[in-house]
């Protein structure tokens, strides 16, 4: 059995990680872990021989196997404590079946852009579905495959984790420690809310970017200078349209309901602009543009929290399921960033959840929502010198 991990141990959160799928995200994850926590053993699984060879040559993995290699099964049965599924959703099911057949008892996470389908497959396939914690790094590149991978891909990026009421209390802190060691920022979301949220901020924008490029291409023959003009800001704003068509087609259909609703809403918004233009309504056009401009200016800048203004939140926990998921989701919902999270076990039935927050978010709302949820909370300022995060 894997012993619970806390920061006091001074050890890495995991000893041996297997990464299934060494494409852009999977290989970048391997590279990032290798750079941040070189003591962790990393093994990769990929169908492509060249990809496996590159991962080994670059030192990103200690071993690299084909899916049918007996070494993969041997490792899952007795050698690793985390499996990261960085493969498309439509092929993940077979790996869930492998993990089930090999009675894997460690933590399973993934990097898929949608959660409804993959979570349903995990629930009906895995013998220990409570050990599956859905994950989604909000990072990518117009480059595909291992050739586009880089160790800094997740620096400053959001990484969504979706624990639920069944998730063992120790799982989230361990994954949080691993992910934040890569420079990413963890956001906890209920898995049932994930697909709708990312449709708005990721999937709809991708379709919009593709649509804008199509618009430009349709007029390129009529005006040769157009594509030269498009090499400026237009090129930057539509960069994501260069992503893998096969990958994004899969994402679109995996999240068809939420994506469809988002596209319909965008059609309505564009229609409002078109109606104002057709009616010669300058006041309405100005109001629409002003609303968007104000909202855009209100978006937070790049993640640069102050390391000198930390706040420790201590929450006594009773022995009940889902408490860590509930607390971390509340923290994310009010914009608070958890720099580190730790569980101090007091007795067999009680513990204290300790969160160290940066100077972001609404601490007042955090306190109010935690109290309304039935938690007893204490806050205390913490200087950077008092808090040393052990990676």
From TrEMBL:
Q: What Pfam families would the database entry show? A: PDH_C (PF20463), PDH_N (PF02153)
Q: Its pathway?
A: Amino-acid biosynthesis; L-tyrosine biosynthesis; (4-hydroxyphenyl)pyruvate from prephenate (NAD(+) route): step 1/1
Which ranges does the record mark as transmembrane?
A: 12-33
Instruction: List the catalytic activities from the record.
Output: prephenate + NAD(+) = 3-(4-hydroxyphenyl)pyruvate + CO2 + NADH
Report the residue ranges that make up the ACT domain in this protein. Answer: 312-385
Q: Which Gene3D superfamilies match?
A: 3.30.70.260, 6-phosphogluconate dehydrogenase C-terminal like domain (1.10.3660.10), NAD(P)-binding Rossmann-like Domain (3.40.50.720)
Q: What is its EC number?
A: 1.3.1.12
UniProtKB keywords: Amino-acid biosynthesis, Aromatic amino acid biosynthesis, Membrane, NAD, Oxidoreductase, Transmembrane, Transmembrane helix, Tyrosine biosynthesis
Please report the stretch or stretches of sequence annotated as the Prephenate/arogenate dehydrogenase domain.
15-307
Domain of life (superkingdom): Bacteria
According to the UniProt entry, its GO molecular function terms are: NAD+ binding; prephenate dehydrogenase (NAD+) activity; prephenate dehydrogenase (NADP+) activity
Q: Which family does it belong to?
A: Belongs to the prephenate/arogenate dehydrogenase family.
What's the protein here called? Prephenate dehydrogenase
User: In which organism is this protein found?
Assistant: Gordonibacter pamelaeae
């Amino acid at each position: 059995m894997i012993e619970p991990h806390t920061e006091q141990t001074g050890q890495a959160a995991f000893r041996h990680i297997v990464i299934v799928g060494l494409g852009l995200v999977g290989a970048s994850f391997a590279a990032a872990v290798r750079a941040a926590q070189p003591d962790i053993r990393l093994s990769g699984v990929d169908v492509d021989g060249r990809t496996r060879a590159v991962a080994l040559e670059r030192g990103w993995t200690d071993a690299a196997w084909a899916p049918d290699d007996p070494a993969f099964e041997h490792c899952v049965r007795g050698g690793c404590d985390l499996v990261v599924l960085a493969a498309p959703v439509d092929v993940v099911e077979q790996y869930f079946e492998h993990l089930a057949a090999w009675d894997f008892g460690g933590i399973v996470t993934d990097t898929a852009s949608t959660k409804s389908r993959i979570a349903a497959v995990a629930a009906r396939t895995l013998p220990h579905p409570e050990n599956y914690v859905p994950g989604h790094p909000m990072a990518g590149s117009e480059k595909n495959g291992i050739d586009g991978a880089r160790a800094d891909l997740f620096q400053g990026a959001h990484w969504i984790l979706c624990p639920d009421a069944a998730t063992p209390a120790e799982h989230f802190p361990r994954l949080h420690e691993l992910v934040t060691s890569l420079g990413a920022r963890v956001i906890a979301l209920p898995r049932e809310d994930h697909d709708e949220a990312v449709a708005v901020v990721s999937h709809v924008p991708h379709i919009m970017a593709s649509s804008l490029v199509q618009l430009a291409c349709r007029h390129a023959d009529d005006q040769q200078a157009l594509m030269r003009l498009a090499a400026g800001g237009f090129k930057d704003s539509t960069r994501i349209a260069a992503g893998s068509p096969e990958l994004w087609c899969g994402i679109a259909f995996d999240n068809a309901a939420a994506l469809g609703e988002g596209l319909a809403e965008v059609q309505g918004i564009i229609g409002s602009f078109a109606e104002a233009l057709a009616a010669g309504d300058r006041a309405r056009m100005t109001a629409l543009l002003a609303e968007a401009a104000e909202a855009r200016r209100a978006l937070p800048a790049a993640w640069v929290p102050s390391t000198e203004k930390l706040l420790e939140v201590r929450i006594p926990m009773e022995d009940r399921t889902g408490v860590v998921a509930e607390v971390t989701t509340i923290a994310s919902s009010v914009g608070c960033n958890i720099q580190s999270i730790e569980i101090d076990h007091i007795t067999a039935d009680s513990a204290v959840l300790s969160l160290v927050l940066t100077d972001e978010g609404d601490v007042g709302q955090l306190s109010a929502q935690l109290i309304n949820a039935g938690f007893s909370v204490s806050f205390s300022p913490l200087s950077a010198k008092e808090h040393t995060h052990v990676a």
